[in-house]
Amino acid sequence: MRGLRLATLALWGVLIAGLSIGAVRAEAPPLAAYGAAPAIDYMALSPSGALIARIVVVDEARALAVTQMDTGRHVFAAAIGEAKVRDLLWVGETRVLIVTSETQSIHELGVPRSELFYGMILDLETKSLVQVLRRTPDVLATLYGGASVRQTAQGAAVFTRGVNVSNGQINLHRVDPGTGRGRSVESMDRDTQGYVLDAQGEVIALSRYFERSGRWSLRLPDGRGFREVWAVDAPVDTPVLLGLGRTPRTIVISADRPDVAAGGDDSETGFVLFEVNVDSGEWTRLPFEHDPDFLVHHPQSLLLIGAGRTEEGGVRYEFLAPEAARRWGAIERAFPDKAPRLVSWNDSLKLILVFIDTGESGLYQLVDFETGVATIVGDAYPAIPAAQVGKVRPIRYAAADGLDIHGYLTLPPGVEAPTNLPLVVLAHGGPASRDIAGFDYWAQALASRGYAVLQANFRGSTGYGRAFLEAGYGEWGRKMQTDLSDGVRWLAAEGVVDPARVCIVGGSYGGYAAMAGLTLDKSVYRCGVSVAGVSDLRRMVNWEAQQEGERNGQAVRYWNRFMGAARLNDRALDALSPALLAEAVDSPLLLIHGKDDTVVPIEQSRVMAEALRRAGKPVELIELAGEDHWMSRAETRQRMLRETVRFLEASNPVGPMQTAP
Fold it and tell me: Fewest CB atoms within 10 Å of the CB: 414, 518, 523, 660?
């Protein structure tokens, strides 16, 4: 694996010891402070709570730091290079698993350029480093579908699927954390979609999905094997296995079973969370008040104890286990109006690590229930003090057809009574995603330069129920687009923004929205910035089909549903494709795209730039070497912000009354 090394450095010890809240400064921080990677990527408590591990970041370099909680002594600090860290897990009390990713292809196996995941286990006692699945016969040392840790009879072990290059199997392997070598423990193939492990590492449920037919099935233990107990046709939205239930022999599954229980209005797929007994096959609906976004399992037993849901004010938790409910209730009382988020807790639940970014740039706080003390243990953006964080206001307005649209307005720092401000519409990606309350580095960077920033959760966004999500089907470039400009008109009518000084910016789907704002809804915006956006819808879906090797695979079916296409290569999409509407553009456009993007290929920005140049329209294209779809590298993220602000200040200046510092 490239870019990952283990070398203890005195520099990291000095850096880690100096982590603290930055001093408040009167002037706006530089754009580099917003574009920098958070100073802490991940943080996790050890099972006993005696140690805390974190990934510390400086520029592109990352280090693992481990601190003793009772003394504050830094017991381990080691550089791990410039790898993109995706997860941090404890393997027992003395080892840490770091999951990283790289954009690569495997030509000899026909694997196209994609994001490949790797696991490295660091032993804190021996200071040794081993790669997961290393020296496993015929198996690639890449993680297929992530990794999990279980406490087996032989000690803590890592479980992950690995691709066998000799027979094509993608079996589940138990990995020895001391050597990295894996041993196959369950036979699986490419049609095996998911599985559930019990607390000891035994597989107690499997799911299979056949891409071509769209058939999904649940398989439960039957003697020494598994048998199919339920199946459903699921061409787009498939059921999902979500881990253990409230008892050791139950699992959680998200599925549409109207014969057992009807779905609620707040479920975007119509799916319900069920608890299934793997021995009896009995299905029971879980008693959550609202449809959750994610589940919370006990750190030791791994049994289901609660769930979380993103709401207007932030993440809200609902716990089924009384002890966890009491503890989290105490945390919410300790941090009123701050919407704390659970990061990690120890096995006894007496130490809980939370993250807060309401009104500040992000603080990690450790709550000790034995002492009743909360201690700040990390700062996500130490160069951005709370005084320089723009206020984020939840907003609500009516779209042209009367549909309620929710979102957020970020104001320049220090502005309490906004009047006639220049505006940036910052459209989120997905589109089946949403903007959330809290610190958003992109929105805050633009606000720090004097712009108000509108982040609207247009129809098709998640978090507002099934009807709202489905209202976005077939509305690319149509009502999903005008939901954004309706927000501009509402803010202008309120006197908050100057309607003559509005630009649109976004990434991924938001990049498409930026280009569509200059072609399909062009009367609103002075300029646009598209980051990794889709410009030619038909070309994009055809590329997805080529990547999958299926003309009617699940990804193609998904995009056709959302874009409103009847079939693959549907020419009806051309009328919604900015690259085919270049003649309509009369405002400047900036295109930014990472060369390593495996989600939206860089050709989507290149064809847009070429179309505009042929039409004699103003366009800039900036290609970011080594960057993926998610702006994972600080250097390129900082450049994206610099180029965006430069372009905005030239095309939509803040004006003499709102001069940025």
Answer: 523
